[in-house]
Amino acid sequence: EDMNEHKEDYPMDIKGRKTAIKYIDFRDVFFQEQFFKRNALTTLPLEYDKENENNNFLWQAGDIVYFQFDENNPYKDLGGFISPNKNNDGIPLVIMISKELGKVREVDKLLEYKIVGHFRYPPPEVD
What we know:
Number of helices: 3
Number of domains: 2
InterPro entries: DUF1287 (IPR009706)
């Protein structure tokens, strides 16, 4: 729905067509990022600061993060979810497709890759 209602935010020409295919395009990381930029809480940090005492609030289980692997090609970004589990230093693990293993895993990569998106969806309601 969002893709059809806001076509200007979802450039189909990158896929070589003019319209979205609802059972395919929602899987595309680029389009996912566009959706969350439009519809999620977007004021979350893009870097994990080990010294920040607010980390439990800023980095919550279920938050969506996108990592950049090629700065010249945003279509190679990968997404993941912040896990409720943490490493020995208290840094949240990430549930994502492991590039090394080629399958979904809980990995300790939050500080290893450049974060280009950090979203909370649905955004919290403000009273």
